[in-house]
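user: can you give me the structure for this one chain? tokens are fine.
assistant: on it. calling the predictor now.
[tool input]
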Amino acid sequence: MAHFRRWGLAEQVRRASPLPDSYPRDIIFATRLFGQELARFQNAFFGDQQLRDERFPEAAQWIPQYKIEAVLREAIATKPRTSLLFGHRLCRLRQDEDGVVATVERDGEEVELRARYLVGADGGRSEVRTQIDARMEGDAAYMRNFLAVYRAPGLSQRVPLSRAISYWLVNPDAPAVTGPMDEDDLWFFSTQLKGDTPAYDLDEARRRIGLAIGADVPFDILETDTWSAHRLLANRYRLKRVFLAGDACHLHPPMGGYGMNMGIGDAVDLGWKLAAVLNGWGGEVLLDSYEAERRAVARLVIEEAAENYSFVTHHMVREAMEGDDPSCAAIRNEIGRSITAGKAREFHAINVVLGLRYESQVIVADGMVAPTWDPMVYLPDARPGGLAPHHWLADGSSLYDHFGTDFTLLALDGAQADEVARLEAAADRLGMPLTVVRLAGDPALRTLYGAEMTLIRPDQHVAWRADCLDHDPAYLVARISGVEPAIPETST
């Protein structure tokens, strides 16, 4: 969401969300929708819209993907020199020294499109991936799932449990996850299909949803589908002028909600680097860094999502868990404790979102040792490669709102004016846009950033930091831009 804020689209996303700001962003585990609560995770995924958190400028949003896409389509339509073509299929592509030619087909008619670069963000069955002979590695389709979308008029008002963004239902005959999906009383229902269990027909789906609800509630099934969980990573993200992004190069279970974040993260990382090259100030090494940075992150996220997926409602079921006598209540309490211990990692893994750190040739490491990895503990710091720490300034504005659209130099109280000027001049000679943000009198920033000067990339990750210039400025800006430096590195 911080990127949507940077693009001026955060408010549009908030308006598109089917849930009002006051709606609790909680996850509830219960025996059935009209059953007994087992456990609860408040502010899941840090989506509380009414809480201002020091660590980020925008809370997470619980919103259907098609609504996010609608916001993006509307924004893209306003951009000059941009065309949106739907209903086309990639037939083949070829590359030369100057660009890529993609042959696409619609209604039997082929058209050639030429560009300097091509990005295949065409999903898990990516044709672009096939065309560049990249392959997925890992576990494919290791668990099947059934999904239904149903309309249940008035269900939200009738559910005796507290409001939540999703309800994980633990019972012996219909373990599942369900929750409000959109306006018009739309709900989703998802459950695993164990072994060779066939996909449910409408009658069986209706029976299962009814059991999961646990009460006589009218509903209509609008759509059903099956999907498979994967744990896959492409062996490469690039072949010359063709790149892969999103599901085209990594697939993982949805548990943890990392999918959209990963796709946006790929697009942001690759997008600013392509823009730098096209605008003449980025080099080939910068494009190489896309795979180095994002593939390592994807590997970690895939393992996190798979870990979350290894403990779902089917694994929590116990015999005699739904009765009214004290022994059944004791079993439910035990299940609740197990859920609280086992699922907190999934719903409160803030470090998987904010704490991922890049390592590549365009990051100037400062030798500081990274803390032990903990998915639930995010410790903001400005070690190069990590996300620039967020901070609410005294005037109520977000620090991020002061960053430029390209590179930013954050200069604090102790930054020497002549050194700032030398960095500005070096960036200007290279043609690298650089916004200088001078902020004084805020000790919290010095604590967060640990240096008087910090170079922050367009994706809000730190490229370099120091109290004073520890490299020749020309070398430094060339290094972080992926351009061969005009002069060798020297310390000053």
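assistant: here you go. The CA atoms of residues 16 and 70 lie 9 Å apart. The longest strand covers residues 136-151.
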